[in-house]
Amino acid sequence: MLSFHRNTYFHAMHQYSSLKSVQSEIKEGKIQLVELVEGYLQRIEEKKHLNAFVEVYADEAKLRAAEIQKKIINGNAGKLAGMILGIKDLICYKDHNISAGSKILENYNSIFSSTVVERILAEDAIIIGRQNCDEFAMGGSNENSYFGPVKNDADNTKVPGGSSGGSAVAVQADLCMASLGTDTGGSVRQPAAFCGVVGLKPTYGRVSRHGIIAYASSFDQVGPITKSVEDAALLLEVIAGHDDHDSTCSTAPVPAYSQQLSFTGKKRIAYLPETLNSDGLDPEIKAITENTIKRLIEEGHEVEPISFPYLDYVVPTYYILTMAESSSNLARYDGVHYGYRSQNAVDLESTYKKSRSEGFGDEVKRRILLGTFVLSAGHYDAFYGKAQKVRRLIREKTDEILENHDFILLPTTPGPAFGIGEKTDDPVVMYLADIFTVQASLAGIPAISLPVAISKSNLPLGIQFIGKRFGEAELLAFSKYVLNVTKKEVV
Amino acid sequence: MNIDNETIAKMAHLARLDVNPNEQASLLKDMNNILHFMEKLNELDTSTVEPLIYLTDEVNVFREDEVQTEVSPADALKNAPMQDGTYFQVAKVIDKG
Question: Family, per the entry (chain B) (predicted)?
Fold first, then answer.
């Protein structure tokens, strides 16, 4: 599977399993952090065809590695020292370009850093580059990027999922140790499932949205994409918590997630029969979900079917609300203050219309038009208002299930990674691929995708657990346990 | 319900977008398909349900209203497609003829 590597340290790094071992090997002089960075840079070069990175920060990553190496040896390094990360092209990093996968921001240079970037840098993470994604996070296949589609490293004819497709592939293909993505309706969890890695969407309000290019503000959350639950816990611990720049960000204290990963006891878990009986569910995904249920029952947990009558309504509700919010959020791209301006503009109105029409891709324009429609006079109540009411029903029913159960277990996706170009003809077919991820997004609660199996055609498969509001500590500890008990036993 | 080209033109104007005439037919088809899909929500009785608007339980946080310079004029202008060092520049708005 791996090509020849000249860099011997790279080989050691390639077995990257935990940050702790990297830190101790650096301390013992077995690894130089700069060489570790060079190994990843070489790997990114070798895997260029995946199109995972939009831009690589080679020189500054090496400079930073030298500084952090000293800190590790001196014993004054931060929690993320030794971690080499990529960030989705939707997360602002001061003095670095950020494009949101769009022509309209092709040459935009960020004038400030997002809170999450400030926090990971303060803990000595190294950011190795920015990662390809669907334009303004609108998509589930990474085929809507101005910088071209991303390929799944398990099979280059398949999509990596989206919208954080580049971020998931980068972890899958060992182009970095972990990534920060964003999840609006599954954009961290679904690509994580397609790429065989861990993807966590935190509770709405757990992580600051300051400096995250907005798609749908009542849904968007930054989430880690990692090889292990331990790294997801550590990253969440660093990025979560109150921020003066985001009034929707919770003041609730942040637990030391990485220290609370030991799990004991028995849990009550609900699974939703509607998800297992839904049309188009891949038989292998059905089998791994059922096997996980069986395995957990054998381990002494109480796992029972609980009806969720709104499954057929989650995707339409999600798209009405997110299209409405995006039509409003994307009004700021006007060709005047920043971003692309059409050369064909002759007056103010044509500056707006031509810049936006030439700068945005087709899916983004379609969502802006539909969002404008569902918010317009005469249609607001029938679409937007209706969806806000159904959102309450979905949230209340989900909360009710979680009052009596610790977690909800369901597939992450209806099928494994699909072919590039396979679903681009019909937007509704593409939207239905989100059916299992949007419930947690509508309810604003945490959910995680765990890589539990590989399909017969060698594609990664994931299962998903939804946890209680601000119950990330319990969700992460249980996830680590689930990966241990299902190891190589499922399928 | 079905929307027509006139509705699309009206939405496009409100959203300050131009619709490419070559793409009008496929856009109309896709938008109608998506709207029909969304109309599924009409199956649910929501007459006694309040809309869910805020996803967080956080209350408003007050602070002193102090002047802070977080973005310098130079930074604010640096990504502008056209600027003269002080102002953003746009195409002529009033034609003096």
Answer: Belongs to the GatC family.
